[in-house]
Amino acid sequence: MAPRPIPVQPPCEHRGCSVGFAEQWGTWPNLVTAVRTIATLVAWAVTVTTGNDAWLLASLLCYWVGDIADGLLARLTQRETRTGAVLDMLADRLSVCLVVVSYLSLHPSASAALPAAVFLGQFVVLDAYLTLAFARWSLLSPNYFGLVDAVVYRLNWSPPAKATNTGAVVLVWLLTGSALATTALAAVVLGVKSYSTLRVARLPVPPVLSGCAVLDVRAAVVSPAI
Q1: Minimal CB count within 10 Å: which of 4, 30, 102, 170?
Q2: Do residues 183 and 137 share a domain?
Q3: Counting runs of H as helices and runs of E as strands, what totals does the chain give?
Q4: Which residues form the domain of 76?
Q5: pLDDT digits (tens, 9 = 90+) for 26-53
């Protein structure tokens, strides 16, 4: 009796899946990530030296503009890598934490501690967990999480969500100085991140990565990991 033919796996045609992409460190997007982090650190150092809030705002803008630029360049040049996504996440947290802590040092007050605690709690813990969760599927970065869960993607990595969830909270704080407004916005973001974290934690994980996130999701539903 002739052996049954092995079914051929259809090629992945989804943008953002990791199939066919080799991990690289030396890419232009990673260089932009390095340059924008150095620029952020330089502006932060000047802030610490001079005590001038304008340089602190410049440090935040270096992070914010550079964060947009490295991701956009990666997508336009098709040089997105999982390594680059992790480096970007680490650079984000270094930059934002320096800005927030420096602002607290320059403007010490009990009212400023609350929005800082709420924001840093969600950004350093919950948002970091969500950002790294993409590695559980065959995704190049969180920017393609819509292939796994459209709701989580819209709440966290769609353009409006990215603008609101990170830099907007710090920007409102620096421009208005209002602890109440900043705490309110940070609390809303904390709620979004908490809901997203619970949603991601419930998603079935594929036993083996196939290179295609859509196939990973199907495999996880059929044979959920124990």
Answers
A1: 4
A2: yes
A3: 10, 0
A4: 24-108
A5: 889 999 999 999 999 999 999 999 999 8
